[in-house]
Specification:
Elements (H helix, E strand, L loop, with lengths): L14 H9 L3 H9 L6 H20 L11 H5 L2 H28 L7 H13 L7 H6 L5 H24 L4 H27 L1
Helix pairs in contact: 1-2, 2-8, 3-5, 3-6, 5-9, 6-8, 8-9
């Protein structure tokens, strides 16, 4: 009231500009999206990102000499490997999120004392994983640099996750990265456990 200006400048901005600023990982754009909009697509976005990741892993399982007809949808539906990859991707993503929550709860328990705090942080983490949608063009336009593109996508998603944690809990830069590191450690532990179980079978 004292300055007669909006506290959130993005209220007056076009959604395209807000999206561009979110892609650039600007904290104020994240704050606007999380606190001043009624976006309720985090669950659907999470499932869609998992489907993209499962599809990418499933493609990597396929034999390169095998000719795949994209119109053969019935054969795709019968591919149990795809559903297995979806389950593994879900478990890995869940362990990553659990690792983040455990670290933040352990380091700053007063920040996550209510159920609404957990839900807001979960929503922020799921929305900030939108970079995984870039897996689709990376797979469609496959070229020699695809592994490098996938690494860049992973880094972009982790930077987005860090900004989401920072904005949601109003933290400095170091603690979100520590939480993400612990989440990645737990996720990689689950991957190693799955590989060990697969070799034992």
């Amino acid at each position: 009231k004292s300055c007669q200006k909006p506290v959130d400048k993005y209220i007056e901005y076009d959604p395209v500009i807000i999206l561009i600023n979110a892609i650039l990982c600007k904290a104020q754009a994240y704050r606007h999206i999380l606190f001043n909009t009624k976006i309720n697509i985090h669950g659907k976005l999470y499932i869609f990102c998992l489907l993209c990741e499962a599809y990418l892993r499933w493609l990597q399982l396929q034999d390169s000499s095998q000719s795949i007809d994209p119109d053969d949808l019935i054969r795709y539906a019968k591919e149990w490997d795809f559903y297995r990859m979806f389950g593994i991707a879900s478990l890995e993503q869940t362990s990553f999120l659990v690792g983040i929550f455990i670290t933040l709860w352990w380091m700053r328990p007063r920040m996550l004392k209510t159920k609404s705090d957990f839900i807001l942080l979960l929503k922020a983490l799921l929305l900030s994983s939108y970079g995984k949608l870039l897996l689709i063009p990376a797979v469609i336009w496959e070229h020699d640099y695809t592994p490098l593109c996938l690494a860049f996508i992973k880094v972009f998603v982790l930077i987005s996750n860090s900004q989401a944690i920072r904005v949601t809990l109003n933290l400095n830069r170091m603690l979100p990265w520590f939480a993400i590191f612990f989440g990645l450690t737990l996720e990689n532990g689950v991957v190693c456990l799955f590989q060990k179980m697969r070799w034992d079978v």
